[in-house]
Amino acid sequence: METNSSLPLEQVSKSLTTRWLGRTVHFYKEVDSTNVTAMDLAQKDTPEGTVVLAEEQLYGRGRGDRFWHSPAGVGIYCSIVLRPELSPAKTMLLTLMTAVAIAKAVALETNLSPRIKWPNDILIDDKKVVGILLETKVGATGVEHAIIGFGINVNHTPADLPQELLLAASSLFIELGERVDRSKLLIKILAEVEYLYERLLQGDLAIMLEDWRHFSATLGRHVRILQRGELTEGVAVDVTEEGALLVQVEQDSFITVHAGDIEHLRIVADDADR
Fold this sequence. Notes:
Layout: E1 25-28, H1 34-43, E2 51-54, E3 76-82, H2 92-110, E4 115-117, E5 121-124, E6 127-139, E7 142-152, H3 172-176, H4 182-201, H5 206-215, E8 221-227, E9 230-239, E10 245-250, E11 253-257, E12 261-267
Parallel strand pairs: 1-2
Antiparallel strand pairs: 2-3, 3-7, 4-5, 5-6, 6-7, 8-9, 8-12, 9-10, 10-11
Helix pairs in contact: 2-4, 2-5
């Protein structure tokens, strides 16, 4: 619960349990976009693990340059600077890692049942409450830095969300019926990110991928995929060790989807043709 005694977001670094992640925090009452700010800092050699945190984003961005509604004082708008020794083909794992970290923290802090929609959304009761945006700079020798940003609808009331989003979006407060302590939630998320990131860099993907499958809202669903202007339908059956989605399009035919927009159509168990 967020109460008068809750730690303000701008002081969250005082209570972190991490060893290196979030030891440098840039807090803003208002910012155009935490990802843009974090990218600027990364290019100025800010240390890995730097966190950019804002009470409000004026031009919050989601995937595909979609606008992320970011009203003041009710959400978590955060970006993390990472410098992973990863091949560019494996950077999608950073998105999956962050989704798992947030889903685990939300489940622990609220007892709600978050589900991850590949590649970058978290849903509760099929409504979006979290969006994740990964942006990378790749140089001649690989990934120079990666910015992993996330926006969480925490204590938004229906009045805080645009009318046109209410059928597809929600908040932890709306789903839970009570306010959530944003600082406690963020502290848990950053601890989970640090742990999973270290495992990822060591090549130990098993825990993260198993947790992703556990929280997945996409696996086992009939999905429609839009990529490069083309539509494909199939059944999402697994996620690869590069973070791509494995989709069965025919009885013995599979495709690997590395990027694209996914629409959930129905659960396969309800599909009489399969």
